[in-house]
Amino acid sequence: LVLENDLHDALDNEELYLEYQPQINLQSGEIKSVEALIRWQHPKKGWISPGVFIPIAEESGLIIPIGQWVLETACRQVKQWEAAGLPPMKVAVNLSLGQLFQQNLVEMIQQVLDKTQLDAQFLQLEITESMTINSNHMTTILLQLKGLGVTIAVDDFGTGYSSLSYLKDFPIDCLKIDRSFVQKIHAESTDKALVDMILSMAKHLQLKVVAEGIEEIDQLSYLVNSKCDAVQGFLFSKPIQPEILQESYKSLH
Ligand code: G
Ligand code: G
Ligand code: MN
Ligand code: NA
């Protein structure tokens, strides 16, 4: 409860900030997308993990104003990078279940796009498989979001214990293979078979695939050979502050 009160103030006091983790396109080798990840620097308690405070935000309803702040900050950042001379980049933003039941979610996102002047094609929304259970509502809301021109990714794919039937009902663009599978890609493992299966299914359904949690060069080689679209992981970069991303980009070009 103390932390909930603190979280309430955190927005006003600018204790929340976003880091960005690059996704490397395996065809071009370029960073075409980044995932925005929220961070909290508490004035007394120091750094608090989103694994701790996101559940508190979800239970208290604070996820609604926080989620809006994340969307606006991420969209504005993409425009700032563009103004600084970086090539166009798509930003992926995580949504919580509560946001998908927020009355004005679609209007709010449209307003954020208008206000920041970001073209909708540069915004990707990440949902998780477990959110697909309430399928009628979800189909409706995802279709409305797609109507804005944004794309939809399924995060942590393969861990949600969900029926796969939602893949034909929902307007999904991208699957993000959970890092627990990626990290165990080695010869003849069951996880390798699962990664192969996801890649082949995605190809048939014309979905993009991002593999998460790449830490080793062998994992990368396997995914390159398997024609995975993009990778995200510590092998390339941990989540970093936007200024650092901008500087390292400039020093490479
Ligand atoms: O960055 P890290 O691995 O610590 O993230 C922990 C969890 O917090 C992840 O599951 C991630 O999806 C979630 N998360 C990070 N940023 C956001 C955000 O802006 N909104 C929501 N809803 N979840 C987030
Ligand atoms: O649940 P979600 O996929 O949104 O969580 C993203 C988080 O995963 C990032 O915030 C980051 O902390 C973590 N992550 C990203 N890359 C790696 C990686 O290569 N290894 C591990 N262990 N975690 C990673
Ligand atoms: Mn994510
Ligand atoms: Na994930």
TrEMBL record:
Lineage: Bacteria, Bacillati, Bacillota, Bacilli, Bacillales
Entry keyword Lipid biosynthesis: no
Span of the entire protein shown here: 458 to 710 of 725
The protein's name in its UniProt record: EAL domain-containing protein
The species this protein was found in: Lysinibacillus pakistanensis
Taxonomic superkingdom: Bacteria
Keywords assigned: Membrane, Transmembrane, Transmembrane helix
EAL domain ranges (all copies): 1-253
Keyword Cell membrane among UniProt keywords: no
